[in-house]
Amino acid sequence: MSQITRDINKITRAIIGISGKLILYALIILLLAEGVTRGYAFGHSIFYATAVEAAPGTDKTITIPDGQTSKESVQLLHDVGLISNELAVEIQLKFYDYKIQPGTYTLNTSMTSKEILQALNEKKTEETKDSSN
Questions:
Q1: Sequence-separated (6 or more) residues with CB below 8 Å from residue 34
Q2: pTM given for the model
Q3: Buried/exposed 50-84: b ≥16 CB within 10 Å, e otherwise
Q4: What letters, b where the CB count within 10 A reaches 16 and e where it falls short, cover 26-48?
Q5: Which residues pair with 60 in a beta bridge?
Q6: How many other C-beta atoms can be found within 10 angstroms of the C-beta atom of residue 119?
Q7: What Cα–Cα distance (Å) separates residue 82 from each residue in 34, 78, 86, 108?
Q8: Angle subtended at Cα 22 by Cα 18 and Cα 26, rounded to the nearest 5 degrees
Q9: pLDDT per position in the chain (133 positions), as tens?
Q10: Which of 1, 99, 100, 95 is closest to 48 using CA atoms?
Q11: At what angle do helices 70-79 and 86-95 cross, to 10 degrees?
């Protein structure tokens, strides 16, 4: 192999190595940006929860039986369309130290998850709909 061919191969390897590193760094930056964006959105759903629907919303009546776990109760809230993010609501339950009380509740889709949890935390057998209605 001539000296020129060796020099060309050396330069080519250097360019490929630098290109690979640049691609790797770009990928890391994109993953970090996506992680920060999703993390912010998830934190926002925990601390600044929004309602599933705008007022006046829709009334939904649910019954929480005695002995039902909080995870099952949160699943029920999601299934009837009162909340959109189960994990965020489970974290809110722990963070705000709410306990879901058994009973029958009439809740509204214009209520935030925090308002719903506050209503379920009270020991009432019938909960009225959102006060904005």
A1: none
A2: 0.67
A3: ebbeeeebeebebebeeeeebeebbbbbeeeebbe
A4: eeeeeeeeeeeeeeeeeeebbee
A5: 107
A6: 21
A7: 28, 6, 10, 7
A8: 175
A9: 789 999 999 999 999 999 999 999 999 999 999 999 999 988 888 888 888 888 899 999 999 999 999 999 999 999 999 999 999 999 999 988 899 999 999 999 999 999 999 999 986 544 444 444 4
A10: 95
A11: 140
- What does the block give as tokens for 76? 């029920």
CB atoms under 10 Å from CB of 91, counted, come to 16
Query: 3-state DSSP call for residue 62?
Result: strand
Which strand (E) or helix (H) includes residue 119? Answer: helix 113-121
